[in-house]
Amino acid sequence: METEVVHTNFKSEEYFINMGPQHPATHGVLRLLLTIDGEIIKKVEPDLGYIHRSIEKMCERDSYQQIVHLTDRMDYLSANINNEAVCLAVENALQLEIPERVKVIRTIIGELTRISSHCLWWGVMGMDVGALTTYFYGFRDREMINDIMEETCGARLTMNYNVPGGLMLDIHPNFVKRVKDFIAHFKTKLPEYDRLLTGNVIFKKRTVGVGVLSKEDAISFGASGPVGRASGYSCDVRKHHPYSAYDKVTFNESLKTEGDTYARYLVRIQEMWESLSIIEQLIDIIPEGEHRVKTNAVIKLPKGEYFQKVETARGELGVYIISTGTKSPYRLKFRSPGFSNLSLLNHIAVGGKIGDLVATMATLDLVIPDIDR
Amino acid sequence: MILLSITENIHNWLFSVMPAEVASIVEMVLIAVVYLTVFAVAGLFLVLLERRVAAWFQLRIGPNRVGYQGLLQTMADAIKLLTKELVGTDRADKFLYNLAPYFVIITALMALAVIPFSQEFHAFDINIGIFFLIAISSIGVIGILLGGWSSNNKFAMIGAMRSGVQTISYELSVGLSLLTMVVITGTLQLSEIIEIQKSGWLIVQGHIPAVIAFMVFMISGTAETNRAPFDMVEAESELGAGFHTEYSGMKFAYFFLAEFINMFIIAAIAATVFFGGWLSPFGITESIPELGVFWFLIKTMVLVFLMMWFRWTFPRLRVDQLLTLEWKYLLPINLVNIVLMAVLVWLNLTIRL
Predict the structure, then answer these.
(1) Phi and psi for A332 in degrees, rounded to 5?
(2) φ, ψ for residue B112 (rounded to 5)?
(3) For residue A1, what pLDDT is reported?
(4) Residue A317 has pLDDT above 70, yes or no
(5) Is A292 on the interface with B (CB under 8 A)?
(6) DSSP-H helix ranges across chain A
(7) Which residues of chain B lie closer than 8 angstroms to A200, CB-CB?
(8) Which of A60, A219, A249, B255 has its CA 20 to 30 A from that of B117?
(9) Which of B58, B316, B318 sits opposite A133 (nearest CB)?
(10) Radius of gyration of chain B (CA)
(11) What's the per-residue H, E or C state across A97-148?
(12) Cα(B218)–Cα(B271) distance, rounded to whole angstroms?
């Protein structure tokens, strides 16, 4: 009698799935082409362009004052820092002497923006791993910052507070008091974040060891911001190329070496503490003086190439201007942090489950208009 | 007693005006209609409760505009869903696609039949009550599998497959944790289980193994109803809406309602088996049996609240971690627990008041 084993025909099949452009986890109109085998991810292919608005092309048409307004619409969560980048680039090109007061206020506003962006990220991160309550906690604290912004800048999301040469308006008389109130409030709320999510055993299971990015890969993929720093790549522009008032304050660059989703999470939480400490150091020493230096109504940059980078909430934003001496740039290029960070996704998500992909993507903290521009 | 006399009057009247066979069929239909109405409304109330509890956890107010404190909000939602067009997918398996919601809602409502709400308010007191509950609750997953499979949608199918894996695994734990308690009672009939608890609730009688069984039951019960932190099936941030992505209108409402009724059933079973069902604590209202419903609902609602608390606090597990939890932790704990309970009963170490 012959015996034969007949189980060799059992094989699995890969299939495509479209995650997005309308999907709760992509937080915008990003489309991911997933190749999946059961639950295991074989390939992630981001498909961009659903919210492309040709911002860089529009910059070639507009004056430098107008360009600042366009930058709000890229990474809308760190609008102020984007504004600052263009303003700094223009000011450096014109070799304007910026008052100390402006520098300090820009730094404070920038750090407030960073905290508000991280608050939103924290809420959404929780939501992506299934803890829906975090969303509202994050928004509660973000709301206070938005109120401060509304009072001082006149807008809550796209502030346009910076102009080449300084600030559009001086700070509101309530500003200092309200920021101090916020610091006191947020210092009691940040530990609450930890209690709700950071130490949670399910959350740790979902994030520790998931989506690991090595330091070498982080550098070669051009990762920046918390994503790079979680892999041990010291890339904080505020530390290495200080702008505004960052050379006057002491703060730690939050570095981790694990490079997994949990490390990226912790880096951002740590950054909120650091931002608080930066604001605390500056809020009492805002110098008196002008809030703006006079510039020509039509700004013409001297012929040449100019580059300025800043640290947004997501990483390194570079502004590269080529001027031919006219009122608008010949070419303007933004190096956005989200774009390079997204390029990592395929590298670190392959081999994980669908749930891992969502958690990993949450800690890359993608803002889609920043990627598409 | 009042309730009993009303039902007895109706019973007598029915049997006096028509032949016995017809009368009992009419009676069954009447009871079914009453149950359907009561639990459809109760399900809507649970939805509202969940929304208000979630709002309370999340620094919100929640629905409070329609009716007093929003009491009619979910009614309005249900009416809206009833009147909405049923939009389905092209090239779906129409027969199975239409059948799936009924599987889910019918099994949910069938399980209610054996639950004793009070001494009299107990539609179907069979001697295999617990077995019936476990058996019925496993049929619900067929509806979810069919719905996900026939929708012609990959996300729905992933959700359905996850659901199959999850419900089949966690059924073991639900069953075994209930069997642990059956070891003490020696009966599967729910009314007798409550009778036995007159000398102390089972969670007290069985002390250590009973507490373990209760915890295992609550965890696996939450998993069985596909609620967070075990909501792999829907997993909003991963699969959109999971298995019911392609359902709209009243069919979607059936799935939605079934989830809440299932949650109520799990809480009701836990209240009955572990916390004495309609018995009052320490027998304080033993002389007024009408209060049984009140005590039963209090116990059930506390457990329902516990499950809502899970949902709005915990992140979601990943699908492989879900299975690890069941097969590597809950199941072995359960098996050891049954033996422990058996030894306890054998050595007569249970606590009887």
Answers:
(1) -130, 130
(2) -65, -25
(3) 46
(4) yes
(5) no
(6) 55-59, 64-71, 79-94, 100-128, 133-153, 175-193, 201-207, 215-220, 225-230, 237-240, 261-283, 337-343, 345-349, 354-364, 368-372
(7) 314-315
(8) B255
(9) B58
(10) 21
(11) CCCHHHHHHHHHHHHHHHHHHHHHHHHHHHHHCCCCHHHHHHHHHHHHHHHH
(12) 11
ipTM of the complex: 0.81
Torsion angle, alpha carbons of A136, A138, A139, A144, to 10? 140
Whether A39 has its CB under 8 Å from any CB of chain B: the answer is yes
Task: Give the per-residue pLDDT at B332.
Answer: 92
pLDDT at A192: 87
Which of A16-30, A133-147, B336-350 is predicted with the least confidence, judged by mean pLDDT? A16-30
- A316 touching B (Cβ < 8 Å): no
Residue identified by tokens 């019925």 is B136
pLDDT grade, residue B349 (50/70/90)?
confident
Residues of A in contact with B157 (CB under 8 A): none
Bridge partners (DSSP) of residue B31 are none
Whole-number average pLDDT of chain B: 84
Tell me what the mean pLDDT of segment B290-318 comes to: 86
Interface test with B, best of A198, A202, A206, A208 (most B CBs within 10 A): A202
Instruction: Give me the residue from A24, A130, A197 closest to B316, CB to CB.
Output: A130
Least confident segment among A124-128, A206-210, B241-245, B248-252: B241-245
Spell out which residues of chain B touch residue A358, defining contact as CB-CB under 8 Å. Answer: 237-238
CATH number of the domain located at residue range(s) A52-372 in this protein = 1.10.645.10
Q: Which residues of A322-344 are buried (b: 16+ CB within 10 A; e: fewer)?
A: bbeeeebbeebebbbbbbbbbeb
A191 contact B CB<8A: no
Q: Are strands A166-167 and A331-335 parallel, antiparallel or unpaired?
A: unpaired
- Report how far residue A214's alpha carbon sits from residue A256's, in angstroms, rounded to the nearest whole number: 11
Taking each helix axis from N to C terminus, what angle separates B94-112 and B249-274, rounded to the nearest 10 degrees? Answer: 30
**Separation in Å, CA of A269 to nearest CA in chain B:** 18
Question: Which residue in the block uniquely carries the two structure tokens 């295991």?
Answer: A40
- Plot region of A35 (φ>0 → left; ψ -120 to 50 → alpha; else → beta): beta
Count CB-CB contacts under 10 A for residue A298. Answer: 11
State yes or no: pLDDT of A5 exceeds 60: no
Binned at pLDDT 50, 70 and 90, residue B23 comes out as confident
Looking at beta carbons, which pairs linking B2-9 to residues 24 or more positions away fall under 8 Å?
A: B2/B290, B3/B118, B3/B120, B3/B121, B3/B290, B4/B120, B7/B120
Minimal Cα–Cα distance from B17 to chain A, Å? 57
* Nearest CA-CA partner of A351 in A46, A35, A126, A24: A35
Distance from CA of B168 to the nearest CA of A (A): 18
Residue-wise pLDDT for A41-75, tens only, equals 888 888 888 888 888 889 888 888 888 888 888 88
CA distances (Å), origin A277, targets A21, A104, A272, B165: 39, 14, 9, 49
Compute the C-alpha angle B140/B145/B146, nearest 5°.
100
Task: Answer for the pair A283, A112: CB distance below 8 angstroms, yes or no.
Answer: no
CB–CB contact A130 B154 (8 Å): no
Distances (CA, A) of A90 to A94, A241, A276, A311, A322: 6, 17, 29, 17, 11
